[in-house]
Amino acid sequence: MEQQETPEEVKPARNLIKHLREFLGSLVKIGENIDYPQTLKKISDDVEFKGYNIWILIASIFIASIGLNANSAAVIIGAMLISPLMGPIVGVGMAMATNDWSLLIKALKNTAVFVLVSIITSSIYFKLTPLGDAASELIGRTKPNFLDVLVAFFGGIAGIVAVSRKETSNVVPGVAIATALMPPLCTAGYGFAHGNWNYFLGAGYLFLINTVFIAIATFIVARYLQFPRFNFVDPKREKKVKIYFVFFLLVFLVPSVRTLIGTYQESKFATNLQQFVNREVKPVYRFPMVESNKDSLQIVISTSGFIDDKRRKEFQSKLANYNLQSYSLKLMSDIDYEQFNKERNQELDKVTTQLDRQFGTIQRLQAEIDSLKADTIAFYGINRKAQALFPELKSMGITKGLLYSDFNQNDTLTTVILDWENGPGDTERLSRWLEIELDVDSIKIIEE
After folding, report:
1. Does residue 262 fall inside a structural domain?
2. Residues 203 and 79 in one domain
3. Which residue has the higher pLDDT, 72 or 120?
4. pLDDT in tens, 352-370
5. In Å, how far are 142, 148, 149 from 208, measured between CA atoms?
6. At what angle do helices 86-98 and 146-163 cross, to 10 degrees?
7. DSSP class of residue 133?
8. Any idea what the CATH number is for the domain that residue 209 is in?
9. What sign results for the dihedral spanned by CA atoms 255, 256, 257, 263?
10. How far from the centroid of its chain's Cα atoms is residue 45's Cα?
11. Which of 58, 145, 262, 404 lies in the 20 to 30 Å Cα band around 295?
């Protein structure tokens, strides 16, 4: 059978598709112009963290801490431009990709060094600075979510792709890495300096997931670019390690995903509430004041003007149109709102007073427990001394109680119960000794 020729009018279309495919492929192709030996040498050299690198790190951490403290994004970016944090983290990813275990150990060691230096430096700054309040730039690094993971991952991709080029790139890879690492490190230092362990742990977790995903991005790109491996491992063992690694990552990501969901829900609620107020309330009442409480599922709106039950019911029924049906609406006038606030504050004052009383009771009980513990410890010491000084003493008991002399003043009475081996012993000398040991003026002796 003869092969049919392609119609002439179809060939240009196929050629166009072919050229378009080649063009798009050339746009995203990253496997060309890679200097493998030079890239490995550069990463290995940058892993080292000593000498001038330490001083540059300290300077950049101070600058970033000042930027976070002053709520200045420009200052934080300036610190990122000089930060040398990229080397050890990229070194971890490259070492895993090339099975270079000596580089991995060196990279992990130097990562620990720069983390320690960074937290100490930022802690010193936040301990000494007169601006002690946490600004929004700093608070934003205490609740990591999945978006932070994406920033770290794509920052790591930008870093390794730029470093592996033969030609000079206009990308500053260190800035992409520092974006994910410096702010959380400084925030962890703030938490450590002020004893705020929620800030410290939140920022520490953010730094940790960013570090992990920068290394993962480096690992993926390095494997894709087929960097030469130094050691080869058993395929079955390597597959098992990969399974454990993926499982660890999924578990590791759960808190950040949950935080992202919570952040999304809060943002969605705020948007829905604002839409409800703009579309339903403001056309009727020009300047409403709105507050919401997610714990009590209540929305409070105060306005000037006459409010009737019909309007309340109308607004309540329209909440479902904005996915707010689970909330109850409290619509009130300005005067009613003032009274509502007054009653709420009175209730808060009552709760605060009750908590203060309970705290006082706890403190008093704790003091009594501490006193009993101290008396118990003191009794054991006195008991051992008494056995040594008075061998004929069979047993001894000591109690402390209140002896009321009148209705205006009371005094304590220490009672000692003695049991001698062979009849009465030297009670008078024992009594004087006990007065000195117990630091009391008088003792009541009861002999059995």
Report:
1. yes
2. yes
3. 120
4. 777 777 777 787 777 767 6
5. 12, 11, 10
6. 80
7. S
8. 1.20.1080.10
9. positive
10. 32
11. 145
C-alpha closest to that of 86 among 29, 32, 48: 48
Biggest CA–CA distance in the chain, Å, is 134
Residue with tokens 């309040």: 133
> What's the pLDDT tens digit per position in 50-91?
778 888 888 888 888 888 888 777 888 888 877 777 888 888
* Same domain as 115, residue 225: yes
Cβ atoms 104, 92 nearer than 8 A: yes
Q: Virtual CA dihedral for 256, 245, 197, 186, nearest 10 degrees?
A: -80
Overall number of domains in the chain: 3
Q: Are 185 and 199 in contact (CB under 8 A)?
A: no
Per the CB < 8 A criterion, the answer to whether 40 and 227 are in contact is yes
Side-by-side strand order, sheet with 393-404? 393-404, 410-420, 443-447
For residue 232, the surrounding DSSP H or E stretch is none
**Within a domain: 7:** no
- Tokens of residue 275, six digits: 């839409």
Q: Are residues 52 and 30 in the same domain?
A: yes
227 is a domain residue:
yes
DSSP letter string, 266-291: HHHHHHHHHHHIIIIITTTSSS-EEE
Q: 92 near 212, Cβ under 8 Å?
A: no
Tokens of 34: 């890679």
Find the domain containing 358 and state its range: 256-377
Question: Do 366 and 418 have their domain in common?
Answer: no
